[in-house]
Design goal:
single chain, mainly alpha, 3 helices, 64% helix, 0% strand
Length: 96
């Protein structure tokens, strides 16, 4: 089992930002330390998801450029309407 050791990291905040986080921490009965760790964790999660989405989009664009396979807007819209209606349908086949 690997033990993770937390190391301190300093963050400089202007007075207004510091007061805002202190007010939030007090209203939630949490420490400012907890609030900052939570905010950083959420930011990292969001940015990692954004990065993953961007990489998927680039990969999809490159695949499209290489093969030309696609669906039209009408085909995709009809498929999504069926899904929205509760039908368990496969996506239509891509074509050139």
């Amino acid at each position: 089992m690997t033990v993770s050791i937390a190391k301190p990291l300093s963050v400089k905040l202007d007075a207004q930002t510091r007061a805002r986080i202190e007010n939030l921490a007090a209203s939630r009965r949490r420490t400012t330390h907890w609030m900052m760790r939570e905010a950083i964790a959420q930011y990292i999660e969001r940015e990692e998801q954004r990065n993953s989405l961007q990489q998927d989009a680039v990969a999809a664009w490159e695949a499209y450029q290489a093969k030309g396979l696609h669906l039209t807007l009408e085909e995709a819209d009809a498929w999504m309407a069926k899904l929205e209606a509760g039908q368990d349908v496969e996506p239509p086949p891509c074509h050139v």
